[in-house]
Write a structure and sequence with these properties.
By secondary structure, this protein is of the alpha+beta class. The chain has twelve helices and eight strands. 33% of the residues lie in helices and 12% in strands. Strands 1-6-2-3-4-5 form a six-stranded antiparallel β-sheet. A two-stranded antiparallel ribbon has the order 7-8. Strand 7 (162-165) and strand 8 form a beta hairpin. It holds the Pfam family CHAP.
């Protein structure tokens, strides 16, 4: 399905929202982001998994009713369907398809129809189909279609997708010593049959195919075994996540000054990932009572109680939370 979406990148609408997607759906001259997603699903043989919709809120409900809805800050996979709410309200305004895995709270790479190519112009009623990278701020949540086989990537050929883990790029076209390290680890585990030479610092189809074999050995199936590393499988292969650095504890007094910092956002995203988020909105960069309540939930999860679970971070619980450096 991603291949079908990628074929439309650069497509521009005619006057008054005139598009091939709207003509196909039977609602031409209307906002067409969800009709584009439905069109890509139909073109790739995934209509049954993705559905056919023109109205985003109905599409959200369709995923919810099937138990295929995940929250806005969850880890996401390529092929997930992302829904946005620009005013952070309960109804979806816009939709696209996720093109690369990303961890909890991380930015997402997408292809979207009826948007703009950059941050200027309408994001939900733009002039064409573009690749975008967005933060989670306006994300409502994600639908996770029950794809069969490797249909998110467009067949059994090696995936050409990339993903970023710990600040390092993996997947076809990635370069660096970290690519060599992955290849050597695959060979050491017995997953090197696709190399005619190497492994080396340039990620090729051979790396993707060997990594796919490794994913299958872990029990991954279908679109989850696409040969593109995810954080869990990469950490299992290497024993740690390359490039990942955790932020040092900034000191207890720093939090009592109610700081505003990207570190607070990073902390909040980790709390959400651990199931301890107590946010009605956010997390964001300003320390608030919601951060304190969320951190208290984390302290209780770590076995602290009473005054030791007061929501003010201490070094032991901070180190255990593994907040990434920002």
């Amino acid at each position: 399905m991603i291949a079908a979406a990628a074929a439309d990148v650069g497509y521009k609408e005619g006057p008054n929202n005139k598009t091939k997607h709207g003509a196909w759906y039977g609602l031409d001259y209307n906002p067409w982001c969800d009709m584009a997603v439905s069109y890509w699903a139909q073109q790739s043989g995934n209509a049954g998994a993705v559905g056919k919709f023109a109205y985003c809120p109905s599409h959200v409900n369709w995923f919810r009713e099937r138990g295929q809805w995940i929250g806005k800050n969850a880890a996401v996979r390529r092929g997930d369907i992302v829904f946005y709410s620009w005013d952070n309200g309960p109804l979806a305004d816009h939709v696209g398809i996720v093109t690369a895995d990303s961890g909890p709270g991380q930015n997402i790479a997408t292809i979207e129809g009826n948007t703009s190519s950059g941050n200027s112009g309408s994001q939900g009623n733009g002039d064409g189909c573009y690749r975008r990278v967005r933060s989670r701020g306006s994300v409502l949540g994600f639908g996770r279609p029950a794809y069969s086989g490797s249909s998110t990537g467009g067949g059994s050929s090696p995936s050409r997708a990339q993903t970023t883990i710990g600040g390092l790029v993996y997947g076809y076209g990635a370069t660096g010593d970290h690519v060599t390290r992955v290849g050597r680890a695959l060979v050491a585990r017995g997953f090197g049959k696709h190399y005619s030479e190497g492994p080396g610092p340039n990620w090729t189809d051979a790396d993707t195919l060997n990594y796919r074999d490794y994913q299958v050995s872990l029990g991954y199936r279908g679109s989850d075994a696409d040969g593109v590393p995810g954080p869990a499988s990469l950490t299992a292969l290497l024993g740690s996540t390359p490039g990942a650095q955790n932020a040092p504890f900034p000191g207890a007094a720093w939090f009592r000054d109610e700081p505003r910092s990207p570190l607070i956002t990073a902390m909040g995203r980790r709390l959400v990932a651990e199931g301890c988020g107590r946010y009605s909105d956010g997390p964001g960069p300003q320390w608030t009572d919601s951060d304190r309540q969320s951190y208290a939930a984390w302290q209780r999860k770590r076995g602290f109680g009473g005054s030791d679970a007061d929501g003010w971070p201490g070094k032991a619980t901070w180190d255990a939370l593994r907040v990434p450096a920002v």
